[in-house]
Design the sequence.
């Protein structure tokens, strides 16, 4: 497997990309590539691309830097990657493309900062940090996508947008987010639909206009030691359900040792920390909930378990372990008629004991 190098300061469009430094004087055309896209094009499946940090941002061609093969793209911690044109509709930074009906495996992005160089000031549809849309042809899959130490800031749409296809068996399989940040984007921080085996490990979503994390039709998803703060700022067509974390029609979801903060301060459309909507086998806690009563909103909740828009079978077998709450007025709301929720009272209640909105047949238990 080869390693290709990219350097916006010393690279050259005519170089082969096989040396980190310019060796053209000794070996013809030996030196780093000038752009990430040029290195992706030159590389073969399984290769690694190493990108040097520079004062200016790397940019792709119109429509994003296209990744269509198994690759690892790794920065040095100082790499900034921007769309071809800032704040432009249908201009993602990275566009991972999978051939219809095929499987793409092992795409890794590491140590990159992905952003508009001028932060978005309005919604720009399709201005994603990282995009992958699997389309509608059956058996289109992306397996083993890894994002590690990636910061995504100020996009006009979602920071990460992974849309499973409408065809049969169109899935993301084994997707890992490790130490990733998605901040101040004009839609969700992380949006993921139709995935099996998802891990958010030590991730952070803050100040996104819609939910910090939105996962839909996912099976086997874990949020571990991750945080969400000050998201759901502007609302949407379904603003009632926007939240710091939103689980829609998911199976076997786990949220453990996470911080959910500042979700009812002024400007928020949603007053929800975690929304569990039409989902089965959800386990929440222990987690920390902070400052869920900053503006005294009557409808704020740390956790909201709901049938959701359009009905359905409703959330089933939701378990809520003892959590730590601070400055919280209301902790849990469960839709009437849903009897498959097992919840424990918060074990620490700084600032007073929060109330709950529960079906008459449901009672929260104390941890003993």
Sequence:
């Amino acid at each position: 497997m080869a390693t290709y190098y990219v350097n916006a300061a010393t690279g050259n469009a005519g170089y082969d990309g096989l040396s980190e430094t310019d060796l053209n004087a000794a070996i013809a055309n030996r030196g780093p590539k000038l752009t990430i896209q040029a290195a992706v094009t030159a590389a073969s499946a399984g290769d690694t691309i190493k990108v040097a940090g520079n004062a200016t941002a790397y940019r792709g061609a119109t429509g994003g830097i296209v990744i269509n093969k198994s690759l690892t793209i790794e920065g040095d911690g100082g790499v900034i990657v921007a769309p071809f044109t800032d704040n432009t509709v249908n201009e993602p930074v990275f566009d991972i493309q999978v051939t219809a009906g095929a499987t793409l495996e092992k795409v890794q992005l590491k140590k990159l900062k992905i952003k508009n160089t001028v932060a978005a000031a309005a919604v720009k549809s399709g201005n994603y940090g990282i995009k992958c849309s699997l389309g509608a042809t059956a058996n289109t899959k992306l397996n083993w996508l890894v994002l590690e130490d990636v910061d995504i800031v100020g996009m006009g749409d979602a920071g990460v947008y992974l849309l499973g296809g409408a065809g049969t068996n169109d899935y993301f399989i084994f997707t890992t987010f490790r130490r990733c940040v998605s901040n101040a984007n004009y839609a969700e921080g992380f949006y993921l639909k139709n995935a099996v085996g998802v891990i958010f490990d030590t991730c952070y979503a803050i100040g996104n206009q819609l939910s910090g994390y939105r996962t839909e039709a996912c099976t086997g998803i874990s949020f571990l030691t991750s945080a969400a703060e000050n998201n759901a700022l502007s609302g949407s067509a379904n603003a009632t359900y926007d939240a710091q974390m939103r689980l829609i029609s998911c199976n076997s979801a786990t949220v453990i040792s996470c911080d959910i903060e500042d979700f009812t301060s002024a400007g928020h459309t949603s007053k929800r920390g975690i929304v569990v909507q039409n989902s089965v086998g959800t386990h929440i806690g222990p987690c920390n909930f902070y400052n869920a009563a900053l503006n005294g909103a009557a409808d704020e909740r740390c956790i909201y378990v709901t049938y959701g828009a359009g009905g359905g079978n409703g959330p089933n077998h939701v378990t809520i372990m003892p959590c730590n709450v601070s400055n919280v007025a209301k902790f849990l709301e469960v839709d009437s008629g849903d009897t498959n929720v097992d919840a424990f009272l918060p074990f620490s209640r700084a600032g007073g004991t929060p109330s709950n909105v529960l079906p008459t047949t449901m009672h929260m238990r104390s941890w003993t």
Remarks:
- The mean pLDDT is 88.
- Helices lie at 36-42.
- The radius of gyration is 22 Å.
- Residues 1-52 form one domain.
